[in-house]
Specification:
The complex is a heterodimer of chains A (346) and B (264). Chain A is mainly α and 346 residues long. Chain A has helices spanning 13-16, 23-43, 47-69, 77-94, 99-118, 126-147, 169-192, 194-204, 206-211, 216-242, 252-265, 272-297, 302-305, 308-323, 327-341, and strands spanning 154-155, 160-161, 164-165, 244-245. Helix content of chain A is 73%, strand content 2%. A two-stranded antiparallel ribbon of chain A has the order 1-4. A two-stranded antiparallel sheet of chain A has the order 2-3. In chain A, helix 3 (47-69) runs antiparallel to helix 10 (216-242). Chain A is globular and about 55 Å long. Chain B has 2 domains: 1-87 and 178-264, P-loop containing nucleotide triphosphate hydrolases (Rossmann fold); 98-177, no CATH class. In chain B, helix 3 (103-109) runs parallel beside helix 6 (162-175). The two termini of chain B are 23 Å apart. The chains are: A mainly alpha (346), B alpha/beta (264). Chain A binds chain B through residues 1-2, 12-14, 16-17, 19, 186-187, 189-190, 193-198, 200-201, 204-205, 207-216, 222, 226, and chain B through 58-60, 79-81, 84-85, 89-90, 92, 96-102, 105, 108-110, 112-113, 115-117, 119, 122-125, 129-130, 133-134, 137-138, 141, 154-156, 159, 172, 176. The complex binds adenosine-5'-triphosphate (ATP) and magnesium ion. Adenosine-5'-triphosphate binds next to strand 2 and helix 1 of chain B. Magnesium ion (MG) is lined by residues 50-51, 93, 184 of chain B.
């Protein structure tokens, strides 16, 4: 249910259906865009955090389409990221094509492979689908190790845009930002139209969706294709950002991190994957920063320090699932609802 | 058997359909037809096979024998979604709405088969995709008006009373602009007022829009008042067919209902 400030009357359906349907939202979104544009000035040497968040948020958007909106679980999301990364490496180094071509190719190739991987989802569901996607994850890792040479092996050239080399964090950021925003807006538009409605219909009650004329196979494979394509684009960006790619970047742990992102952010939410990616990456970095000082303070702590990340993560996930299953996006919505009504609670 | 039905104005024809589950024959050599603009009632005791007939028509159950023809097309082996796309809409005995979505979204989902915008257009939401959504919204609002659901437009379905949910489910089926509407006990669990409203909607759908319908209902008063013709089932077989007045006094029907409930 949506609660809107009193006095906010829509005069047409078009207006009622706009993505940013109130002046408040539009101002808020403009402010956010402004802040993102100005971020390099403020963040300085911490800009790498925002670059990392943007890349993984794009990947998480894909998983949120697949899992959050279409209800198909996947433990192989980072495998698609790997395919995008290596496709991008191949297109730029072996074919000598520019970065944008590599990005597009990574997106298209993962779209097609995603559709193929999604085909069995008509027959297998839930836990079995999780196992099948996990198998895909392991096969991909195996292929990488035995062809590209495993750990940290493959060097990717810097992205170049119309002959201009993207080398610094700030340059990369301004390359990433438009793709990040466009990817986010595209998904947000998609989920409120025909595709989103059909995906949610499949997720919530597949036989009712069939009665509405929804072809389950078509939409499930579309969900896999779209989800994989976002991961592929994220993989391409990651490859040209990190400049070195290897099997260790695309493990099943990374796939699980993606799941954590969309659960923490809010499963069926357009803001969820962005918030979740931000949270997970900041938490990762934060723990990496805090743990060594903890160990020097308390040497006995050293043995517990290695799994600290997993422990904190697990606790947070369980806590969030109990406290607010809607994730961060729902927390924000509640806060906003509260502010809308302030100072008159209800 | 009932009166012969000329093929020309027959919308749906079920020919000698038999459906077996392990150790049980749910539908036994059943034939029936729905004519253009007709409201056909299917009645019978619990477990008679009424819902199974709808499931065969909409493609969830696959009969071991017989054929199902919709507007002279053999749809016996078509998948469920393809039958929906031909214009067969239905409601379910135990409501199959999307509880987490609003009334508006639920009814809009009935427009899915009329929506054309592709993935790219939908993601960019420019021009055609936007105009299309607005156009569908108008159709959905007409249905909301028709079913008097204005006050519930933005409510999540899970929050609504059972009777209101039944109306929403009818609304979703109507949004498909059906050429055949299958209603499985649309008034079960409703209050007397809600039943009267539902009867009014069904009558208007038949009279004003001329939508052919199959109505399964246990309330004999409603069935006798609304339906043009009745098919009575028992143990998967058709035991009688004809006009409501005739059915009421048919000894076989009274026999089948003995110990269940008496025909009013
Ligand atoms: N999927 C199924 N698997 C096994 N048996 C089934 C299945 N569906 C229905 N049946 C059986 O087929 C018979 C007919 O069931 P059906 O639901 O069609 O009856 P009905 O006339 O709609 O009854 P009611 O008035 O209680 O809704 C019942 O004995 C039922 O148990
Ligand atoms: Mg039934």
């Amino acid at each position: 249910m949506s609660v809107r400030p009193a006095g906010d009357f829509k005069t047409s359906y078009a207006q009622d259906m706009a993505l940013l349907d109130t002046a408040l939202y539009r101002i808020g979104f403009a402010l956010l865009l402004g802040a993102l544009l100005a971020a390099p000035l403020v963040l300085g040497r911490y800009l790498f955090l925002l670059n990392t968040i943007g890349i993984f948020a794009l990947g998480a958007v894909g998983l949120s389409l697949l899992t959050g909106f279409a209800g198909q679980i996947s433990l192989g999301h980072s495998a698609f990221m790997a395919i995008g990364a290596y496709a991008s490496w191949y297109v730029t180094t072996r074919l000598g094509l520019p970065f944008l071509a590599a990005l597009a190719f990574a997106g298209a190739a993962t779209f097609a492979i995603g559709a193929l991987v999604g085909l069995p989802s008509l027959r297998i569901k839930g836990l079995y689908l999780a196992i099948a996607t996990m198998a895909f994850q392991f096969i991909t890792e195996y292929v990488i190790i035995h062809t590209a040479g495993g750990m940290g092996g493959t060097v990717v050239p810097a992205a170049s845009l119309f002959g201009f080399q993207i080398r610094t964090e700030t340059q990369f950021y301004y390359l990433l930002l438009p793709i990040w925003v466009a990817g986010g807006v595209f998904a947000a538009n998609l989920v409120r139209g025909r595709v989103g409605l059909a995906l949610m219909a499949v997720r919530d009650r597949d036989y009712a969706a069939q009665v509405l004329g929804v072809n389950l196979l078509q939409y499930k494979t579309l969900a896999f294709a779209l989800g994989a394509s976002y991961a592929g684009v994220a993989g391409s960006l990651f490859a040209h950002y990190n400049r070195v790619i290897g099997a260790e970047h695309f493990t099943i742990l990374q796939s699980i991190d993606f799941i954590a992102m969309i659960v923490i952010g809010g499963l069926a939410s357009v803001w969820g994957p962005h918030l979740g990616a931000g949270f997970v990456i900041l938490l990762n970095q934060g723990l990496r920063y805090v743990t060594p000082s903890l160990v020097t303070l308390l040497p006995t702590f050293a043995r517990a320090a290695t799994p600290l990340r997993e422990i904190v993560f697990g606790a947070l996930l369980i806590g969030l699932l109990i406290w607010e299953p809607g994730g961060l996006a729902m927390l924000f919505r509640k806060l906003k609802r509260y502010l809308d009504l302030w100072p008159f609670p209800h | 058997m009932g009166p012969a039905t000329p093929l020309a104005d027959t919308v749906l024809r079920i020919e000698r359909v038999t459906l077996r589950f392990v150790g049980l024959t749910a539908i036994d050599d059943l034939s029936l037809a729905v004519r253009a603009g007709e409201l056909l009632g299917i009645i019978g005791p619990n477990g008679a096979g009424k819902t199974s007939v709808l499931n065969c028509i909409s493609g969830f159950y696959h009969p071991q024998a017989g054929r199902i023809l919709f507007r002279d097309q053999d749809i016996t082996h078509r998948p469920a979604h393809a039958r929906a796309r031909l214009g067969i809409a239905r409601t379910f005995q135990n409501i199959a709405l999307y509880p987490g979505m609003t009334v508006l979204a639920n009814i809009t989902s009935g427009r899915l088969l009329h929506m054309r915008a592709g993935v790219l257009a939908g993601g960019v939401y420019w021009g055609p995709a936007q105009r299309e959504l607005v156009r569908h919204r108008e159709r959905v609002e007409e249905i909301i008006d028709f079913l008097e659901l204005e006050g519930h437009r933005d409510h999540r379905v899970a929050e609504l009373a059972y009777g209101v949910q039944k109306k929403v489910e009818l609304g979703r089926a109507l949004a498909m602009e059906p050429r055949l509407l299958l209603l499985d006990e649309p008034m079960a669990g409703m209050t007397a007022d809600e039943k009267a409203d539902m009867a009014r909607y069904i009558l208007e759908l038949r009279e004003v829009r001329g939508i052919p319908m199959i109505l399964i209902e246990h309330d004999m008063g409603v069935v006798m008042d609304l339906c043009d013709r009745l098919v009575v089932m028992d143990y998967g077989r058709k035991i009688a067919e004809g006009l409501p007045e005739a059915i009421q006094h048919d000894p076989r029907v009274i026999q089948a209902y003995l110990g269940e409930e008496t025909v009013a």
